[in-house]
Amino acid sequence: MAAKKIAEQQRMKKIVQILKKEYPDSKCSLIYKNPFQLLVATVLSAQCTDERVNQVVPVLFRSFDTPEKLSKASLKEIEAIIRSTGFFKNKALSLKSLSSDLLKKHQGKVPSEQTQLVELRGVGRKTANVVLGTVFGVPSMVVDTHVGRISRRLGFTKQKDPVKVEFALMDLVQKKDWVIYTHLLIDHGRKICSARRKPLCDQCVIATHCPKVDVL
Length: 216
Hints:
Blueprint: H1 2-22, H2 35-44, H3 50-63, H4 67-72, H5 75-82, H6 88-106, H7 114-117, H8 125-135, H9 145-153, H10 162-170, H11 178-191
Helix pairs in contact: 2-3, 2-8, 5-6, 9-11
């Protein structure tokens, strides 16, 4: 078992190295200027594309760019701006609530600990890890649909529950690469290993390391 794990860690290390060269500018694609704005954008990104969120947040932040302003906004005002992101009523409630809690419990600042972040309405492990890894530099593994799907395709896990996938990957990816791993797989999923169309295996730089692909 130990030998198998070491082999998988080495395979993972090689894949990450290759993807880093393929996507040298890989990073969080959400638009933000500070931790609060990233938190808001990430909450809005649930069941929504980053592209759509990036169209909405500049409008939202023109009027409500701080916890103070957003907490005082009416739900109707927030809903009207974020409607196109989907589930806008729940998201509006979450944004207003988390803004109020940031003021009441954290002096208006976004906490840098996962346990405190997930106490905010609308913030789960995935959202918390995005904020921790992106703006606070805390090694965090974010598992979105791309990360889960491609990691399973690569044979690194059979789990479908995001939290179980997260812990399985943390055991294989070097800690210093936890944050970038997510961005690399998102970029690779969008360009090559898509869920909406047939994966472009003949163009994939990690195809020879993928058990789902015949040696090309």
